[in-house]
Amino acid sequence: MTITADEHRTHGYADLPGLMSLMTGDEKHGPAATSTLDVLWVLYDRVLRVTPERAEDPGRDRFLLSKGHGPMAYYAVLAAKGFLPVGWLPGFGSYDSPLGHHPDRVLVPGAEIGSGSLGHGLPIGVGTALGLRAQGLHDPAVWVLIGDAELDEGSNHEAIAFAGPAGLDRLHTVVVDNASASHARPGGIAARFEAAGWSAATVDGRDHAALYEAFTAPHPGRPRVVVARVEPKNA
User: Fold this and answer.
1) Is residue 73, in this structure, part of any structural domain at all?
2) Which of the four pLDDT bands, split at 50, 70 and 90, describes residue 30?
3) Is residue 1 assigned to a domain?
4) Which residues face 174 on adjacent strands?
5) If I label 222, which of 92, 119, 197, 214 is the partner at 20 to 30 A Cα–Cα?
6) Domain that residue 14 falls in
7) Domain containing residue 95: CATH number
8) pLDDT tops 80 at residue 49
9) What predicted TM-score, i.e. pTM, was given to this entire model?
10) What is the pLDDT of residue 235?
C-alpha cells in the first residue's frame, strides 16, 4: 500500500468521529469502542510519553489495551497520532488488513500487546512493571485499559492483589465502566482496588479535564487506578 504524506499527518480530537466512520463492516462492537474514546485520547494526547518515533525506546511509557474488542477508537487514536496511516482504516477487519477485530502487536504499529481473552491485560501489565523495575528502568509508566466486565475474571483479581503490596507505583489501570459487568463490587470498583493498597479515583469518563487530573495525580509507593464512568452499554 502506498502511504501519502497526508495520511501521516496528525489529527485532533474533533477528527476522531470521522476517522472511526472510515471503519465499516460486521462485528464492530460500537459501544465497546466509543466507551473508550475519551480515555484513549487524553492518554495519548496529554499523558503517555510515547510517539511513533519512540515506539521502540526502552524509556517509553507502555500502553496495554486489554479491552481489545471493538478497537476502532484505539485505531482511530493511533492514526490521529501518526502511529499508523489513515489509509489503513477503511480496510478494518478485512482479510488482508493489519487492523483486526482485536489488535495484533506484530501488525499494528504502537500496539504493545495482542488482545483476545479478557482478563489478560492487567496481569501482563504487572509483569511489565516488574520487568522494568528489574532492569532498573524506573521512569517508564505502564498503563492498562480494561473494561468493568473484565473484573468478572479471576486473573485480574490476582493481579490487583499482587500489585498493591508489591508497591508497583509505575503501574496504572484505567477501568472503563459502562455497567456491563455481571457481578457488582461492594463499595464500587474503586473500593476493590483500594482494599489491595491501590490509589484510586472515580471520574466522568467523558470529562477530559477530570480524566487528566486523575491520570496525573501523585501516588507514591502505590499503583494507581482510575475508574472512568461512561453511559451504560445497553442504555
Assistant:
1) yes
2) confident
3) no
4) 145, 226
5) 119
6) 6-229
7) 3.40.50.970
8) yes
9) 0.92
10) 57
